[in-house]
Write a structure and sequence with these properties.
alpha/beta, 4-stranded mixed beta sheet, 29% strand, binds copper (II) ion
């Protein structure tokens, strides 16, 4: 008899693996809002790291390390029905992500100079809003920044289920 798992037992096994994953306990990830990239000071006004990959239930803390920045989700760049946010300038903000998918965000005063970032919440259905997020029209230097981000995402090994 061939060694085959039924779909149901495969899903159960996957869930068990997920629970056994060391980082399963909901994690808080930090993203700093900076006037200059820590490894390349010529890059001004950045989120660091610019791409954050998390699991459902995880929290991202956007930290006002340097002043004058905020984190706000970009209209059209969050999964349907998922959480959106709009942090105040100079304030830390914590966002908890439950729905898998791609969450684009920006610094409101610096979006046009390319201060944008992406949170990827892994899991089933995560690819559903990718095209919509990529299709959002961007202005100024945000356009190039998003092209760079999407190119980087393409090279990532993401667990899509
Ligand atoms: Cu900013």
């Amino acid at each position: 008899m061939p060694m085959m798992l039924s779909r149901r037992s495969f899903v159960a096994a996957t869930a068990l693996l997920a629970m056994a994953r060391p980082g399963f306990a909901m994690t808080t990830h930090e993203v700093q809002m900076l006037n200059a990239h820590p490894e390349d000071k010529k890059l001004r006004q950045v989120f660091f790291p610019r791409i954050q990959v998390v699991q459902p239930g995880d929290t991202v803390a956007f930290l006002s390390t340097d002043k004058g920045h905020n984190s706000a989700s970009v209209r059209g760049m969050t999964p349907e029905g998922a959480t959106t946010w709009d942090g105040k300038i100079n304030n830390d903000i914590e966002v908890t992500f439950d729905t898998p998918g791609f969450y684009g965000y920006q610094c409101t005063p610096h979006a046009s100079v390319g201060m944008v970032g992406l949170v990827i919440v892994q899991g089933e259905g995560m690819m559903d809003n990718l095209e919509a997020a990529q299709g959002v029209r961007q202005r100024g230097k945000a356009k190039q920044a998003w092209e760079d981000i999407w190119a980087e995402v393409e090279g990532m090994d993401l667990a899509t289920a």
